[in-house]
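Suppose you are handed a protein chain with no further information: no name, no annotation, nothing but its sequence. What can you learn? This example shows the usual starting point.
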Amino acid sequence: MEDAEAGQRVEKSIERRDDRRVDSFGLDRFEEGAAAFFSYLDVTRNLSPHTLRAYQSDMSNFLGWLDGFSLEKQSLEANPSTFWREIPAAYIAHLSAQQLSKTSLARKGSSLKTFFKFLMKERYFEENSLPVVFHRPRLSRRLPNFISPAEIEQLRSAALHEPESPLKWRNLAILEVLFSSGVRVSELSSLNVGHVNWEELELLIQGKGGRQRLAFFSQRALQALLQYKALWSELCAEPMTADCPLLLNKNGTRLDVRSIRRILLELGKQAQVDKPMHPHVFRHSFATHLLNNGVDLRIVQELLGHVSIRSTQIYTHVSTERLKRAYMKAHPRAAQGNTTQQGKRV
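A reasonable first move is to predict its three-dimensional structure. Written in structure tokens, the prediction is:
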């Protein structure tokens, strides 16, 4: 129903657009274009609710700023080309004054770049009539944290020491499934009982953009899930069916992403693991351990559900760093060269 209404809004927007003069620079076009853009992201690209909220926030903030900027400049009608060229730098300066990180600036700039492309493609403005270029800030490459097998054992031990209850086995299942499958925390939260192939140890994942893929989980994860499944009736009076959420909270409803984050952080504290146990650390660990054991990068890409291989390549840097450290530590010539260099610096 919502998709149909969104589609009708887009159609009405296109009808109104055809009646307009294409060469005028009315700022009301941005608001109209933003509404159609959001419907396009929701209906056509089928982005996740989290991503849609981010886009909506970016568009709302930009349009609010643009309105004030146009009033301040008073140059739109006099010299529209110059006016639009000033937009990116002025808006990035506005965002920088809010002390946003480079990552946030890059994301907002990317959102607006996509938005402006949409405006041109859908003829809200004539092609090349908006000389607006948002340059992506140079980001420092951060290698993702990952968990060692020893740390996983610490976490597992902490989970097993919890009092006997369905929540104990649910929490252990969360831990084991995330580590062995590499799924996103949102994908884990959205799993239904019918998405689990108990015999083949497979998960049917509804990924980003509505894309489906198979993920695989371990025997340890299966054991935890079966223990949790046996105690299901203590959390939910309704019989377990294929459409039931796989992971339940104490009230018998779907366990949300925020609660999974909280559970993992608490387990990390109990296990005294010296790094924050955010859900994405498990995904990083999954990819890193596969690559360290010789799995092809393309296979890791498929397992993670990455559309672009570039998203997966960050994990090759993790593996390379580990190889380099091992080489520098173990090879006699490498160690000798390192000592020589240190002597020169002294």
